[in-house]
Structure formats: C-alpha cells, structure tokens
C-alpha cells in the first residue's frame, strides 16, 4: 500500500515507503572516530615553528632556550642546537665514571701486605692490571703521615714517586724486562703500604731509638720484598739483585722523609 497525502490545492500525492528491515548497520561501514583520533595522536609528530619561521621537530626532545644565548640561537633558527633528548638513560655511579674499582684496589693491597706464597694470592694482578687511583691514594696517605707541619713534603713525595718509578722503569727495560711505566708506577705506589703501616705505629716505637730503627728497617725490607715479588718475574728473575738495589734506595729515601733521618 502506498499512503496518500493531501498536497496544497487539494491534489493527492503518492508517497513511497522504504523497508530497512533487511539492511544491517555494518553494511554502511561506519568508523569509530574516537579510535581514529587516538591513533592519529600517536602517529602524528609535533612540530614547533620558531621565530624565524622554520619548523622544528620536538618529539622526544626538550628545548632549553631560557637564556639570552638560547633565545638568540632560537631567533636565528639554530634552536635545535639546544635540544636535549628526553631519555631515561641511567647515570653511571661516580666510581665507575672515574674507573675506580674498590674491590680490585683492596685485593692489590692484600697482595702487597701478604706477598708470601703461603697466602696463595695472585700477585701478578698488580703488574698485569695496573691502575692509577689505588697507588695515588697510598702515596697521598704516606705523604699525609709525613707532613708534621711541612706541607711541602707532600709535593716532594709525589715527585719522588713519579721520578723514582721512571728510574726503576728505565733500569728494568735496560735489563730486558717487558714492563710498562704504568705498571712500575702502580707497583712502587702500592708497595708504600708497609711504610704506611710502619708510619702509623712509629710514634709508639719512637720512645726507644733502637726499636724504632729496627722497626723502620722492617718496613723498608717489607716494601722492597713486595716490590721485588711483583716486579721481578720472568726475564727479570735472574737479575733481581740489580733491580732491587735502586728500589731499596728509593724506599729508604721515602722513609727518611717521614722519620727525618
């Protein structure tokens, strides 16, 4: 049936009815505007337009133009020089930044204090893996013990450490040893630890001059023996006496700076 309606003027017009019963809403292929806008938000990078009209990509970056120089660069179109990436990069600890391994230093200190084979320590690690901070700490500790109102002794002990190590290095190479300056520098520095121990106990022994002198010789011999065990290996084993004599003089001079002998 086609319904009729009255048009203006009394005329009847026919109207056609459309049945939507067999048509599903999916056939019109409507899209979810909310999901589309969310995808577009992630897919579309953001851009900033600088004062010079240049477009700059700022996705994942922060611009630090809060200074006069920064505003000047931004105005000239060089604001990208101030961009810093906003990453979650982990900051390394200070000891790792300075390449300081406290466990390694502690093990090397044990090797110097206990150089006898009975303790079964790997003495070669002091020579094969040289470092700078451990020996420097030991030399500074000994220098601080030697001050007694003479602050200039600190710089002199550091100078003797560098110069004396170079002399021992030069002699070791002349004798055919395969050692580097950094290795000798580390060994000579670490082997001051016995003198540091002697220096801590020396004021107690100083009441009796004979005992204090014997105590000082024990410290010098301890340091020389540790240095010889760490330095005179392989090709220098048969020439140990030639190398230990200047090493002994060096440590005797170190001790004289402390005791004033």
Topology:
Blueprint: E1 4-6, E2 12-14, H1 33-43, E3 47-49, E4 55-57, E5 61-63, H2 68-75, E6 83-85, H3 94-97, H4 102-113, H5 124-128, H6 133-145, H7 152-174, H8 181-190, H9 193-205, H10 209-231, H11 240-259
Antiparallel strand pairs: 1-2, 3-4, 5-6
Task: Explain how this protein is built.
The protein has 261 residues and is mainly α. Helix content is 54%, strand content 7%. The chain has helices at 33-43, 68-75, 94-97, 102-113, 124-128, 133-145, 152-174, 181-190, 193-205, 209-231, 240-259, and strands spanning 4-6, 12-14, 47-49, 55-57, 61-63, 83-85. The strands form three sheets. A two-stranded antiparallel ribbon has the order 1-2. The protein has a two-stranded antiparallel sheet with strand order 3-4. A two-stranded antiparallel ribbon has the order 5-6. The termini are far apart.
Strand order of the largest sheet: 1-2
Uncertain residue ranges: 35-61
Mean pLDDT comes to 74
Number of helices: 11
Radius of gyration: 41 Å
> Which structural class best describes the helix and strand composition?
mainly alpha
Annotation, overall tally of beta strands: 6
Largest sheet: 2 strands, antiparallel
The helix content, as a percent range, equals 40-55%
Outline: elongated
Indicate the proportion of strand residues.
5-15%
Task: Tell me the span between the first and last alpha carbons.
Answer: 131 Å
Q: Output the helix-strand order.
A: EEHEEEHEHHHHHHHHH
Family: Belongs to the YIP1 family.
Pfam family, one: Yip1
Organism: Pristionchus entomophagus
Transmembrane segments: 132-148, 154-172, 184-204, 210-233, 242-260
């Amino acid at each position: 049936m086609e319904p009729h309606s009255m048009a203006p003027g009394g005329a009847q017009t026919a109207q056609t009815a459309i049945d939507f019963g067999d048509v599903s809403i999916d056939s019109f292929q409507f899209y979810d505007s909310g999901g589309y806008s969310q995808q577009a938000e992630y897919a579309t990078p953001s851009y900033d337009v600088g004062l010079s009209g240049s477009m700059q990509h700022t996705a994942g970056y922060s611009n630090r133009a809060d200074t006069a120089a920064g505003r000047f660069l931004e105005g000239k179109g060089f604001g990208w020089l101030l961009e810093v990436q906003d990453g979650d990069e982990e900051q390394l600890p200070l000891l790792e930044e300075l390449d300081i391994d406290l466990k390694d230093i502690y093990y090397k200190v044990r090797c110097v204090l206990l150089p006898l084979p009975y303790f079964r320590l790997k003495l070669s690690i002091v020579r094969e893996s040289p470092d700078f901070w451990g020996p420097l700490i030991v030399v500074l500790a000994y220098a601080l013990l030697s001050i007694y109102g003479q602050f200039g002794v600190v710089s002199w002990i550091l100078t003797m450490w560098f110069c004396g190590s170079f002399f021992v290095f030069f002699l070791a190479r002349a004798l055919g040893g395969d050692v580097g300056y950094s290795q000798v520098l580390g060994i000579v520095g670490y082997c001051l630890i016995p003198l540091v121990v002697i220096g801590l106990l020396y004021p107690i022994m100083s009441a009796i001059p004979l005992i204090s002198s014997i105590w000082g010789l024990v410290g010098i011999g301890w340091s020389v023996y540790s240095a010889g065990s760490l330095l005179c290996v392989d090709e220098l084993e048969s020439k140990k006496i030639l190398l230990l004599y200047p090493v002994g003089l060096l440590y005797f001079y170190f001790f004289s700076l402390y005791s004033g002998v």
